[in-house]
């Protein structure tokens, strides 16, 4: 059953103390996800619009408890939006270049794999790259656990 709320006074977003009468349908739980999909995902509405636009559009016709939080959660869970959205992290420190003094001063180490297992049982490669010259060396490893990683790193640094 869908109820219609008529004549309620709702505070309009963006208008400080003004109120206006609006007609809203109290949407039952079973229809809320469909409404969110329709307003957020559909190309007719612009497709994958932001949470405030979705909320404002929904608010013109519908009402349910915690609607604003439901819209925020739905937009946050949208895979397509998260992939396309630029990262707006204001607390991120600015990137700076690290000084490079010379060869063999700074190394980058990473593990590549799992790869196709060799006849000897090696499945991973410990990659070591010199930051200055970009000289790269690889060392085969059977596992990528910390013990073997440290053993290979020590073996590499002592050679």
UniProtKB/TrEMBL annotation:
SUPFAM superfamilies (alphabetical): Ribonuclease H-like
Domain Integrase catalytic intervals: 95-159
One GO-annotated biological process of the protein: DNA integration
Pfam families per record: Integrase_H2C2 (PF17921)
Any GO molecular function: nucleic acid binding
Gene3D superfamilies, alphabetized: 1.10.340.70, Ribonuclease H-like superfamily/Ribonuclease H (3.30.420.10)
InterPro entries (alphabetical): Gypsy_RT_Integrase-like (IPR052160), Integrase_cat-core (IPR001584), Integrase_H2C2 (IPR041588), RNaseH-like_sf (IPR012337), RNaseH_sf (IPR036397)
PANTHER family: ENDONUCLEASE-RELATED
Descriptive protein name: Integrase catalytic domain-containing protein
């Amino acid at each position: 059953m869908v109820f219609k709320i008529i004549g309620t006074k709702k505070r309009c977003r963006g208008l400080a103390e003004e109120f206006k009468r609006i007609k809203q349908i109290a949407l039952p739980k079973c229809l809320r996800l469909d409404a969110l999909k329709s307003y957020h995902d559909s190309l007719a509405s612009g497709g994958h619009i932001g949470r405030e636009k979705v909320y404002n559009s929904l608010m013109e016709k519908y009402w349910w408890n915690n609607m604003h939080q439901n819209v925020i959660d739905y937009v946050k869970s949208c895979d397509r939006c998260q992939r396309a959205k630029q990262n707006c992290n204001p607390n991120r420190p600015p990137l700076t270049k690290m000084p490079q003094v010379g060869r063999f001063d700074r190394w980058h180490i990473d593990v590549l794999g799992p790869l196709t297992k060799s006849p000897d049982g090696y499945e991973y490669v410990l990659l070591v790259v010199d930051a200055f010259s970009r000289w790269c060396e690889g060392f085969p490893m059977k596992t990528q656990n910390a013990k073997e990683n440290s053993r290979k790193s020590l073996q590499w640094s002592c050679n």
